[in-house]
Every structure is written in structure tokens, then in C-alpha cells.
């Protein structure tokens, strides 16, 4: 047996696990210091002189060398070539000449099957991915197809490959579109989406290349961990098999964390890494409805500022001394949970949180009498997910829904931990350089920026900042009327929450503008809506569901009229997400334009830069004209504050992981 | 604060059945009326302190209750005092980290290894991190102590105490009559080179007895002692023992006794040495006894007897006032005070402590910090003064440990502590403001700057009576001690050759006068020549007469005529310019000061004001003015009083017989004193303070460091 797995030394593999994955090892202080010195002081200046892309360039030559020879082969001969290269890849590793040959093979196969030939920059990107880099490609430059190169190469070497993306729609679409290519090369493809059974999942993960979402992957990983409880090493499994109890083996769905290519890496590595993934099961013991109702009733009598302090930016809420006293008086004489000071304060704090910090159609939607959590970064509903510690039940009572069972945590993991366990990890995104440092320090990925294939034709208009939300809606409707109705262009309006998308939809309806609405409540025909979004005079209002990864193809004649126009109606917490939405237009050399129409009443401004926003609002109200350039610092400040807070949470997550490893060591290793 | 009752990580522990390892022992203690439980781990000789509610949970950890059950039980029994789930997890983690927990599952082995590595590293750092105290463990003395258990118990019983008193008290009483012998020329004897060598040999032996005292007292109280070794304290080997087993003694006096045992033994040894010292004739043995006495009494009381240092007295104090961890809790309390009142973080939780404890924390924290800083600076300076190179390295190390480390910690705390998060901007602003304020003060605010030198009171020139020409003193024209006025003849000298010369000149003049008179009529031209000769001779005669009149020394000012050596003066030969006596009168005296070369530059260039204090009237401060400055450096002092032997600062070259020659060059200044009427005693010391132009402290310090490096390294 070789001493290494995918060029990773055996000693760096985690012990006591059912399948191969990298050990999370915290580098010692001196290692970190040495790395900092080497990376920061020595490589830093050199990197400025020498673009890291240059190191990847030779792959283009290596691939080109085989191109003509492969082109004249028949399909059958090409397949033979593909199976011949397998053993070489497995035995001699991923040496550039061999990888070049493999890439040429994949490129030729792609030309014949899906009719798309990889561009040279995509070869470079693919090689970067294979080397475990974070590849930054501009939006619409064909990341999906670039990822097939390393995926096929590693899969041909016999290692399971996971292509991880942000939502089911993308996972299914990408798996479907690339299936022909992989199958031509003799590789199987699977896709894991919500609602699949364990058997289906196991089948999907057993494929050479598996397309999945970050959430599904994390939950499958956690389920595997829980299924095996504590006797979980591969040695235990083998012993079990010897004893003939195959059943335990059947519990597993994954085959190991070998090679992960993370699409939209900044979203997964950064934006989603704030909340840990929690696998829970129903305890059966339902929360008492009466208790929740009482809690909400008491909470509603308390006054903000007097009885409790609320911090929207940090999203937390504390009772004041007076609030506690008031609560003591309110609950005087009551039995059960109300007789304990700590328990009642906790319950009322949760009730207040449910009332003040969680808004319908923003943080959750109510569908069919059920409270469903909306994922802020993808804009999608997360079924079967619930908030912890009774919060979910309180919100259900608040919305008058049927109470669900209280859930009990079985396992939890942060993305920071999960992805570091990949033996080889790489990522791709359109927006990485703002967070390159954090990704490097947490996941160890270096960022490589790939040059553009074709120059972008995107026109970015100056942002328009309105004073009130009503004004914003009016201007958006005006703009849509002009662009879609009069000019016949396609328009995409991006919103941050379900509620906001419905407001805009209502405003458009009032003007009689026909449009499609895509949000967590209206997600039935997502694929059709997206497919039609590029048609002439088509107006689409969407939450972040139509953000990252969505490829809107222009309808006939739209390109001539100026392509797709994207309107951003509210800035996101980070500039990257804004850029992602703008990235929906002007893809792959098409024309397109985008603009931001926001208002000073937007949450981002009010919560994260309250003082400055109020000042500007007062100035504008007093008739002082504010040039639109002046709003840039406001946006910068608000987004900086929001990012800083999120960054803090992420750092705390990582630190807490480490701390808990120490504190909870007695309970065995686990998630 | 409302910490949540439930924990997100509860699922990881809820089903575990923890069990306290069987060798751990619980002890019930009462500190200041509150019950606490000490959990002792004899294997690692560590002791952990728990509150009663934690103790309840710990005592339920018997491997049959799951953590979930533990929590339920705790809630049932403790009510509002029950810990939250996070606190319970933390408690379990603590026990695990102390290796006191067994669980029904295999713990994370990787974590065990990392932790042991980390602990070993920390141990090494503790041992070798501080160059002033390198710790080397040697062996386990427990078996040895067990063998002597009977004796040990006797020594630390009431009988032992009586015997101790019987020995030590008489010694104390006998010290009084022998005090002069003991203290005579104390510093000379102690710091002499050969004596330092004796101290170096005697010190470890005494300290070994000291540590044996701790160890045996621990044993007598029922504890075990498993670690004995040596600390290289500033390169001096000092033994130590680990007497932490004494922490669990129920009686606080018993605990304090263990702390005091070392000093007790030393005083006992000192008493024995004292008795022997009385009996033995002077010699090497007596010198050794003297040093034993010195170390075992003075030094131990100075260091071990000082509760501000973390030595014996600290532990005695902690035991007696029943505040365990006084030092750590004081600094935590001070951290709280600073954050709360300096940085203005309002939502902080005050460290749990009673009012009296807070008073202790406040004063102890302040006093011990200041004292430690002072002692470190003092030791560093002392060593730097003795061995410059090593001293500088040690001083830098000490500064790093005392200043840079705490500052880095403070900065990290300021930037990373989650408690300060919401107040970060403000805290950082205040802290930065303080730092910049301090920097501004040091760099920009001029501060008084002065150099102090020594000098002697000196008479002004006109008060000196000097021999104006060479000659033998014939007689005193004025009785010494009487009042004279300016111009009064004082001393008559004689010079026989001068008399003869005078006569010869007079005769020559007479001869030439006669010859001139004779030639005037006969030969006019010749007469003219003789006349010229005559003029010459007359001039010569005038000169001789003048010199003759110089043989009478006169008073140049009014005052009392004083002659230092009246009796042997007549008949003695004095050279021209030699001092014959003084006329002490109203003429204000001078201060002649000697400025070492490193200070001469600032004295010459930037002196604004000079203040002089004579040694006999310390309260009197005189204004001065530079009268003369000798531009070239000299090697001789104007008075032996300025040398080390005379009580001054300058080291004198003993090989030079000519006079007090200094080892380094000096410069002399004469300072005219204003406001001093008359002085009776000349040659006495004066302290002179040159006040320079005000300069910021940073500039002043930079200059002295620069000078220090220049003199020692020529850089």
C-alpha cells in the first residue's frame, strides 16, 4: 500500500474514522509563526512580482500537445484512452504533463458530448482547482465547466470527487448538464438534493463524481458520525464485517472526504460559516403550548429600552434589572417553570427574541400552516430545520401554527471544520479577493485570479439612494416601466427577503406590469422562471434564489437591446453578494447593465450605520442636496461594520471549536 | 448577566456517565465563614477548589449517574444556585483537564497527548523561562521523611516549639550586648570578595535546611512531599520542595506553620551559629558562623518574611487571612477595576468577593505590583553595575518579562477580549490616549534636569596668606587669632642671600655714584657711560629691595589671622607662593567642585542655576555662580575629602603617592557662593546641584543610556 493518499502523508489522516479524511490539527505556534514569516515576508513581495497564475500556465501547453492527436480518434478510441490513463493517474499522481494529457482528453470529450470546448483560461482554472487553490473567475466565465477538468481527472484516478455548490437547483442542473461528459469518460455522476432517501444518497455518493450542496453534504457527514456513534474507526468496521454484521456498514452514505471542489466558495466558506450545522431529531416531548403563550404574553407587556435592551446589530437581547423585577411581579404566584427565576427569565428572553428579532417573510415564511426557516444567503426554504432551545415553538405560537415537537441536538459541526477535513480542497468563485486572507488562514487555500476570456460588457450605473422605501418602490417601478415596457429589455430585480420581493411585486402589480416572482414561497417552477428571465420585456422579481450561480440566458433580440438589466434594491451585508447579483447580467461577453436603487430606510443602513444614516436622512429632509458620491462612504461603513461583526462570529466559531475540543475531550471525539 | 440555562453542546455530554477517579480526595474547608471543598489529586499533587454546589455534583460522579441525571439532581437540590449546563460542562472539562475524570467512553486520545505535550512545555517554560530562577527537580524525598516520621512529628509538636523558644529567645536577648561587634564595619565585611565566596557556599546549605523545614512540617501535618529540587536563583543554587499537600490541612494555623517552618528552622540555625560565634576565636570558622547567622536571620526575614513577594510570608498571610489565591485574585480584581473605571465598561461582572476581601485585593495588588517592579529594577541595575554585559542581558530579559509580556497581554486583551467587544472602540481610544499622553509627556514636556556633584568649601584667594618670595620664616608679627586689617604685616621671613645681594647692590650704587661724581668733571663722555651703569644698578637695587619687602607677608583682606602650623613655622623655608596661613574674615568662601568628565558637557553648556548645600548645614541652600572653570581636565582632586576614602565619590588610584589621583579625568569649577556670610570650617564637603535647561525625560534618558553604552562598548 502506498504511504500516501492523494499526495497526503498517512500520518496526516484522521484516526478513528470510518473513511479517509484529513486530521484537524492545530499547527503549533512556531509553525504558524514560521508560515507567517515565510508567506508574509518572503513570498508576499515575490507574489507581487510574479502572478500565481503563471505557475499554472504550462498546463495549456501540455494539453495543446495532445489536442490534434485526440481529435482524429473515434469515440471508441477516446474511451479507451480514458480508461488507459486511469492507472497512470492513480500510480504516478497528478504530474503536470499527465494532467495536461488528461485535460486534453476531457476537453475533447466535452466538445463531442456537450458541445462546449474548454477555453484555455478554463484549463488554467481547472489546474488551479486540482492543485487545491481558490480560483477566482469573473461571474459568467464558465466555472461549472472548468470544474469538470479536475473532477474528471481525480475521478479517473479512482478517488471520490464532491462538487459542492450552494443550492439544489444548481447541483441538479450541473449534474444534468455534465452527465454526458462524465459518462463518456466512463465515470458515473450522482446528485444529492433535499428529500432523498438514504439509499438514494448512498448511491449518489457511490458515483465517481457527486454534485451536492454544502448543507446536504454536512448533514450526511453528521448522520454518518451519529450512526456509528463511538465505535467508528475503519478497524471497528472491518471487525464488524468479520463478525458478519454488515448492517453497520450500511449506515454509512459517504465514502470519505477525498477531493472537494466548492463552487461559490466565498458563500460557503464565509457567509454560511457563521451558523454551525445542527443535526437534530424529534424528542417527542412537545413544548407546552400554554407555557409558550404565557411567555409571549408576558413578553408583550415588557417595554423595549426600559425592561430589556435590544441590539439589532448583534442580534441579541438582554433583560434589564427593571425587566427582571417586572417579570417577577408578573409571574407572582404562578407554578412550574415560572417559579424558577432563571428558567422564567430565559423563557421570556426567548419569547422576546421570537417577537423582536425574527420577522415573518424575512427570517422565516409560513407555508401550509408551518413555520419554515429561510436561509438568508440562498433565499431558500430549509425544510425540517428548526431553531434551538424552544425558539421555534415560540415562533409557531406567535404565528398561530401547529406546535411541532421539540428537537434535540444529535450532532453539530461548523463548515470551517468540515471542509478542513478534505484531503484536498479547492474552491471557485467570482468574488474572493476581499476574503482571501480569511480563507487562507481558516481553510489554507491560496487565491488565484484567472484572467478574463472575453472582456466584460457590463455597464454599471451610479447608485440611486432614496430617502424612503416608498420613494424607492416608485423609482423602481418607473425604471422597470421604461426598460422593460418601452425598450423591451429583460429586467431582474433582486431583493433580500421574501417580504421585500412581495412589496416590489405589489408595486409592479399596481402599475399593471406583468412579472414573475421567485422567492421561498413561490419556488415551484424555479427552473422555468430562470429559463424565461432572459426573454424580451420579461420582468423577474427574485430573492437571492436568483443570485449566485444562476445563469440567465438571453432571449432572441435581447442582446441587441442592451441585454439583461439588474436592479439591486437593497445592499447586502457584504459587497461580494452585491457583485454576485450584478454578475447575473453581461455573462460571457453578452451586453448588460446593472444599478442599485436603495433607500436610507434599508436595514443595512439603519442597523449597521445608524448614526450616519440618521444624519444624512435629516440633511436630505432639510432640503440639503447630497451628491450621490457621498453615499459611498455610508455604504462602505455599513458593509464594513456588518462584515466585521460576521467575521467576529466566524472567528468565535473556530475558537469555540478548539476550546470545546479540549473541554469536551472526556466525552470522546465527536461532533 | 443572563447566561443561558441550556447549552448547545449538552448533547455531547448528556448521556455520559462520569466517574471521579478513585484516588482523588475531597477536603472540606471554611474560608471566611464560607464552605469550600478542596479536591486533592495526590498523583499530580495538585489541589482544586470547588464551591459546595460544585462539590455536590462532583460527589455524585460515581459512574452510575449520567450527566443529564447529575444536572437534574443539582437542580432539585440546589434550586437557583444550580449551575447552568455550560457551567456543568466547564466543570467536567476542568476535572478532565486535571486528569480526575473517568468516563464510560474512550476520551479523545489525541487531545490527551496534545495536552500532556502542552503541559510539559509549560513546565519547561516555568523551569527555564525565567533566567533569574531556573528550576531543576531532583528527587522524591517522601521515603526519607517517612523514615524519620517520629522525629519529624516531635519537632513540629508543642515540645518542639518549646525547645525552639528556649534556643532562639536567649539568642535574641544576647544580641544586644554584642551588637557593636556584630554590626561593626558591616558592609565591608559582608561585601568583601572572600566573604562573598563563603556566602556562596553557606547559602545553599542553609536553604536546604529551610526547605527541609517545609517538607518535615508538611509531613508532620500528614501530607506527602514528592518533589525536591534546586532553583538557580540568579545563578545561585537554592533548594526547593513542593509542599502543596499542606493546602488541604484543615487547620489554617497548621497550614501557616508549614509556611513558617522554613524561617523557623533558619532562625534556629542562626541561634546556634550565634552561640558558637561567641565561643570561637576569630578565624575562618568564626567568619563562616557570622555568615550563617547573617543569612539565616537577616536575609530570610527580608525575603521570606515579606508577603509582597511570593515566598513563605505570602503563603502564611494567605492562610491566616483565609483568602486563597490572593495574588491572582488581586490582579483579577485590579483588571476589573481598570476595565470598569478606566475604560468605562459598565456591564462587567464584579469578581465575587466580600467587602473585606476587596479591600485586601485592592491594597495587596497595588503594593505587591509596585514592590515587584521596584525589586526587579533594583536587581537588574545592581547586576548591571557589577557585571555590565551579563547585567544588561539579564536586565533586558527582566524588562521583557516584567514589561513587554504584560503589555502584549494587555494589548491582546484590549483587542481580542470578547467582554470588551461592544466597548472596543472606546476602550482602545482611552488606552491609546493614555499611551500617547504618556509618550507626549516623555517626549515633549520639559522636565527639570540636574546633575549633582560634590565639592569642598574653599577660601577665596585673598584670604590666603602666601609667601611672596622664597625665604625662611623669621617671626610672626601678629599673634595668630587676632584681628588684622588689609595691609597689616603678618609674617617676617628672612633670606640671607637676599640680604647679601642687597648689600652688594647698595655698595655698587655707592661706588658708581662716587665714580660718576669723579668723572663728571674730567671726562664727560666717560661719565655718561658710568651714569648708564649707575641707572642699571639702581634698578637692580630697587628690585632687590622690593624682594626684601616681600619677605613680609601681609594680610590681603580683613579678618582673623590663622596659621595652621604655628609652632614649627619659624626657621622653615618657604618657596614663593607657598601657603603660610589664612586671614579668615568676611570674604565669602568658594566651593571648589569636581565634575566627572561625563557630566562636564552639560554643566558647562546648559547650567541655569547652581545650588550648593554645605554638609554641616543640610537645610541651607545657597545660590552659586561659576567663578572659574579650569578648561583642561585634571587628574588630581583638590582635596582628599572627595575621594572614596574621604567619604566622596571618586575612586582614587592607590599607587599614586603624589596626591589624590582619580582614575578618571575630572574637571574643576570654582563656584562663588552667595548668601554665605562666613564659614568656620573649610575643606568640608558641599553638595552642588547644577540645574540644567529643562528637557523632556526621553531626551534625558536617551543621553544617559547613550553615555552608558559609549563608556562600556564604545558605540
TrEMBL record, chain A:
A GO CC annotation given for this chain: plasma membrane
Reaction catalyzed: ATP + H2O + cellular proteinSide 1 = ADP + phosphate + cellular proteinSide 2
Protein name (Swiss-Prot/TrEMBL): Protein translocase subunit SecA
SMART domains per the UniProt record, alphabetical: SecA_DEAD, SecA_PP_bind
Family note: Belongs to the SecA family.
Source organism (scientific name): Bradyrhizobium stylosanthis
Chief place where the protein resides: membrane
Domain Helicase ATP-binding, first and last residues per copy: 124-302
Amino acid at each position: 500500500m502506498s504511504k500516501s493518499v492523494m499526495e497526503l502523508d498517512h500520518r496526516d489522516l484522521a484516526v478513528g474514522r470510518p473513511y479517509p479524511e484529513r486530521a484537524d490539527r492545530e499547527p503549533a505556534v512556531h509553525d504558524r509563526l514560521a508560515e507567517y514569516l515565510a508567506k508574509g515576508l518572503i513570498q508576499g513581495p515575490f507574489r507581487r512580482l510574479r502572478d500565481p497564475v503563471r505557475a499554472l500556465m504550462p498546463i495549456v501547453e501540455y494539453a495543446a500537445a495532445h489536442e490534434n492527436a485526440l481529435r482524429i480518434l473515434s469515440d471508441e478510441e477516446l474511451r479507451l484512452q480514458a480508461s488507459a490513463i486511469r492507472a497512470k493517474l492513480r500510480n504516478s499522481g497528478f504530474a503536470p504533463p499527465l494532467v495536461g494529457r488528461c485535460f486534453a482528453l476531457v476537453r475533447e470529450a466535452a466538445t463531442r458530448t456537450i458541445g462546449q470546448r474548454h477555453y484555455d483560461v478554463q484549463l488554467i482554472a481547472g489546474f488551479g482547482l486540482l492543485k487545491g487553490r481558490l480560483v477566482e473567475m469573473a461571474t459568467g466565465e464558465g466555472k461549472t465547466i472548468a470544474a469538470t477538468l479536475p473532477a474528471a481527472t481525480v475521478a479517473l484516478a479512482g478517488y471520490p470527487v464532491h462538487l459542492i455548490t450552494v443550492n439544489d437547483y444548481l447541483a441538479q442542473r450541473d449534474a444534468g448538464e455534465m452527465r454526458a461528459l462524465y459518462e463518456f469518460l466512463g465515470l458515473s455522476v450522482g446528485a444529492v438534493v433535499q428529500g432523498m432517501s438514504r439509499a438514494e444518497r448512498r448511491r449518489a455518493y457511490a458515483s465517481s463524481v457527486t454534485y451536492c450542496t454544502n448543507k446536504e453534504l454536512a448533514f450526511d457527514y453528521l448522520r454518518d458520525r451519529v450512526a456509528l456513534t463511538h465505535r467508528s474507526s475503519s478497524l471497528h468496521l472491518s471487525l464488524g464485517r468479520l463478525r458478519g454484521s454488515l448492517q453497520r456498514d450500511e449506515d454509512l452514505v459517504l465514502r470519505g472526504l477525498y477531493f472537494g471542489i466548492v463552487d461559490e466558495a466565498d458563500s460557503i466558506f464565509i457567509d454560511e460559516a457563521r451558523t454551525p450545522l445542527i443535526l437534530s431529531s424529534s424528542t417527542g416531548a412537545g413544548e407546552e403550548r400554554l407555557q409558550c403563550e404565557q411567555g409571549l404574553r408576558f413578553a408583550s407587556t415588557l417595554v423595549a429600552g426600559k425592561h430589556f435592551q435590544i441590539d439589532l446589530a448583534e442580534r441579541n437581547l438582554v433583560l434589564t434589572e427593571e425587566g427582571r423585577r417586572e417579570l417577577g411581579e408578573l409571574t407572582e404566584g404562578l407554578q412550574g417553570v415560572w417559579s424558577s427565576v432563571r428558567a422564567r427569565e430565559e423563557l421570556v428572553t426567548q419569547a422576546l427574541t421570537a417577537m423582536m428579532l425574527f420577522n415573518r417573510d424575512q427570517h422565516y415564511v409560513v407555508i401550509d400552516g408551518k413555520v419554515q426557516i429561510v436561509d438568508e444567503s440562498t433565499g431558500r426554504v430549509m425544510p425540517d430545520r428548526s431553531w434551538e432551545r424552544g425558539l421555534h415553538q415560540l415562533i409557531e405560537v406567535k404565528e398561530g401554527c401547529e406546535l411541532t415537537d421539540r428537537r434535540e441536538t444529535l450532532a453539530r459541526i461548523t463548515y470551517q471544520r468540515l471542509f478542513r477535513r478534505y484531503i484536498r480542497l479547492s474552491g471557485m468563485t467570482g468574488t474572493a479577493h476581499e476574503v482571501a486572507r480569511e480563507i487562507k488562514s481558516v481553510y489554507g487555500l491560496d487565491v488565484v485570479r484567472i484572467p478574463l476570456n472575453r472582456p466584460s460588457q457590463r455597464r454599471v450605473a451610479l447608485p440611486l439612494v432614496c430617502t424612503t422605501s416608498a420613494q424607492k418602490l416608485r423609482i423602481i417601478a418607473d425604471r422597470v416601466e421604461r426598460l422593460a415596457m418601452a425598450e423591451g429589455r429583460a429586467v431582474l430585480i433582486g431583493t433580500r427577503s421574501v417580504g421585500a420581493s412581495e412589496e416590489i411585486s405589489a408595486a409592479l402589480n399596481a402599475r399593471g406590469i406583468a412579472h414573475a416572482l421567485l422567492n421561498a414561497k413561490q419556488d415551484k417552477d424555479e427552473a422555468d422562471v430562470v429559463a424565461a428571465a432572459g426573454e424580451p420585456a420579461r420582468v423577474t422579481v427574485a430573492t437571492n434564489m436568483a443570485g449566485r450561480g444562476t445563469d440567465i440566458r438571453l432571449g432572441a433580440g435581447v442582446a441587441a437591446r442592451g441585454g439583461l438589466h439588474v436592479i439591486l434594491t437593497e445592499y447586502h451585508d457584504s459587497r461580494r453578494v452585491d457583485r454576485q447579483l450584478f454578475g447575473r447580467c453581461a455573462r460571457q461577453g453578452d451586453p448588460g447593465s446593472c444599478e442599485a436603487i436603495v433607500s436610507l430606510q434599508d436595514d443595512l443602513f439603519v442597523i449597521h450605520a445608524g448614526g450616519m444614516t440618521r444624519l444624512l436622512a435629516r440633511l436630505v429632509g432639510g432640503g440639503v442636496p447630497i451628491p450621490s458620491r457621498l453615499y459611498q462612504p455610508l455604504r462602505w461603513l455599513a458593509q464594513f461594520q456588518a462584515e466585521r461583526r460576521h467575521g467576529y462570529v466566524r472567528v468565535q466559531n473556530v475558537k469555540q471549536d478548539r476550546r470545546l475540543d479540549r473541554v469536551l475531550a472526556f466525552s470522546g471525539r465527536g461532533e | 448577566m443572563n447566561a443561558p440555562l441550556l447549552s448547545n453542546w449538552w448533547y455531547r455530554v448528556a448521556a455520559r456517565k462520569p466517574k471521579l477517579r478513585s484516588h482523588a480526595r475531597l477536603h472540606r474547608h471554611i474560608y471566611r465563614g464560607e464552605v469550600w471543598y478542596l479536591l486533592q489529586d495526590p498523583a499530580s499533587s495538585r489541589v482544586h477548589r470547588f464551591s459546595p454546589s460544585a462539590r455536590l455534583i462532583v460527589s455524585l460522579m460515581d459512574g452510575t449517574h449520567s450527566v443529564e441525571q447529575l444536572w437534574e439532581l443539582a437542580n432539585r437540590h440546589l434550586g437557583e444556585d444550580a449551575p447552568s449546563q455550560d457551567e456543568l460542562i466547564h466543570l467536567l472539562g476542568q476535572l478532565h483537564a486535571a486528569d480526575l475524570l473517568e468516563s464510560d467512553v474512550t476520551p479523545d486520545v489525541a487531545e490527551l497527548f496534545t495536552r500532556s505535550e502542552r503541559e510539559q512545555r509549560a513546565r519547561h517554560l516555568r523551569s527555564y523561562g525565567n533566567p533569574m530562577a531556573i528550576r531543576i527537580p531532583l528527587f522524591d524525598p517522601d521515603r526519607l521523611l517517612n523514615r524519620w516520621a517520629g522525629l519529624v512529628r516531635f519537632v513540629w509538636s508543642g515540645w518542639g516549639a518549646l525547645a525552639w523558644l528556649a534556643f532562639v529567645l536567649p539568642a535574641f536577648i544576647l544580641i544586644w550586648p554584642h551588637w557593636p561587634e556584630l554590626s561593626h564595619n558591616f558592609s565591608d565585611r559582608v561585601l568583601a570578595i572572600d566573604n562573598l565566596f563563603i556566602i556562596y557556599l553557606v547559602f545553599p546549605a542553609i536553604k536546604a535546611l529551610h526547605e527541609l523545614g517545609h517538607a518535615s512540617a508538611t509531613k508532620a501535618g500528614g501530607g506527602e512531599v514528592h518533589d525536591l529540587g534546586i532553583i538557580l536563583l540568579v545563578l545561585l543554587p537554592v533548594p526547593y520542595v513542593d509542599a502543596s499537600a499542606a493546602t488541604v490541612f484543615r487547620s489554617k494555623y497548621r497550614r501557616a506553620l508549614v509556611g513558617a517552618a522554613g524561617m523557623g528552622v533558619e532562625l534556629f540555625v542562626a541561634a546556634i551559629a550565634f552561640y558558637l560565634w561567641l565561643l570561637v576565636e576569630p578565624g575562618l570558622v568564626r567568619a563562616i558562623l557570622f555568615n550563617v547567622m547573617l543569612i539565616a536571620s537577616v536575609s530570610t526575614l527580608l525575603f521570606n518574611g515579606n508577603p509582597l513577594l511570593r515566598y513563605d510570608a505570602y503563603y502564611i498571610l494567605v492562610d491566616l487571612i483565609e483568602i486563597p489565591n490572593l495574588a491572582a485574585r488581586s490582579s483579577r480584581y485590579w483588571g476589573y477595576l481598570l476595565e470598569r473605571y478606566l475604560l468605562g465598561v459598565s456591564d462587567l461582572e464584579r469578581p465575587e468577593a466580600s467587602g473585606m476581601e476587596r479591600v485586601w485585593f485592592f491594597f495587596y495588588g497595588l503594593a505587591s505590583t509596585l514592590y515587584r517592579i521596584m525589586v526587579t529594577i533594583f536587581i537588574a541595575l545592581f547586576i548591571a553595575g557589577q557585571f555590565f554585559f551579563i547585567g544588561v542581558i539579564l536586565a533586558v530579559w527582566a524588562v521583557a518579562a516584567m514589561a513587554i509580556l504584560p503589555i502584549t497581554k494587555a494589548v491582546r486583551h484590549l483587542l481580542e477580549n470578547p467582554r470588551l467587544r461592544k466597548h472596543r472602540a472606546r476602550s482602545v481610544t482611552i488606552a491609546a490616549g493614555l499611551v500617547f499622553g504618556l509618550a507626549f509627556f516623555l517626549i515633549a514636556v520639559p522636565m527639570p534636569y540636574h546633575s549633582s556633584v560634590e565639592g569642598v568649601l574653599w577660601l577665596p584667594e585673598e584670604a590666603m596668606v602666601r609667601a611672596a618670595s622664597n625665604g625662611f620664616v623669621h617671626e610672626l608679627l601678629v599673634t595668630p587669632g587676632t584681628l588684622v586689617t588689609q595691609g597689616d604685616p603678618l609674617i617676617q621671613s628672612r633670606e640671607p642671600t637676599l640680604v647679601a645681594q642687597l648689600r652688594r647692590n647698595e655698595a655698587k650704587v655707592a661706588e658708581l655714584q662716587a665714580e660718576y661724581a669723579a668723572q663728571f668733571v674730567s671726562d664727560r663722555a666717560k661719565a655718561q657711560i658710568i651714569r648708564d651703569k649707575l641707572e642699571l644698578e639702581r634698578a637692580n637695587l630697587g628690585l632687590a629691595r622690593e624682594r626684601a619687602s616681600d619677605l613680609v607677608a601681609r594680610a590681603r583682606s580683613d579678618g582673623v589671622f590663622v596659621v595652621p602650623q604655628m609652632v614649627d613655622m619659624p626657621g622653615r623655608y618657604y618657596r614663593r607662593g607657598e601657603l603660610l596661613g589664612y586671614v579668615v574674615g568676611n570674604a565669602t568662601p568658594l566651593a571648589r567642585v569636581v565634575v566627572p568628565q561625563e557630566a562636564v558637557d552639560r554643566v558647562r553648556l546648559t547650567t541655569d542655576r547652581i545650588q550648593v548645600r554645605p554638609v554641616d548645614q543640610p537645610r541651607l541652600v545657597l545660590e552659586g555662580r561659576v567663578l572659574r572653570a579650569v578648561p583642561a581636565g585634571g587628574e588630581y582632586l583638590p582635596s582628599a575629602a572627595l575621594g572614596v576614602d574621604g567619604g566622596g565619590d571618586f575612586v582614587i588610584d592607590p599607587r599614586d603617592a603624589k596626591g589624590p589621583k582619580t582614575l578618571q579625568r575630572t574637571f574643576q569649577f570654582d563656584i562663588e557662593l552667595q548668601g554665605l556670610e562666613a564659614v568656620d570650617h573649610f575643606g568640608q564637603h558641599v553638595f552642588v546641584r547644577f540645574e540644567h535647561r529643562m528637557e523632556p525625560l526621553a531626551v534625558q534618558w536617551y543621553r544617559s543610556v547613550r553615555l552608558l553604552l559609549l563608556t562600556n562598548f564604545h558605540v
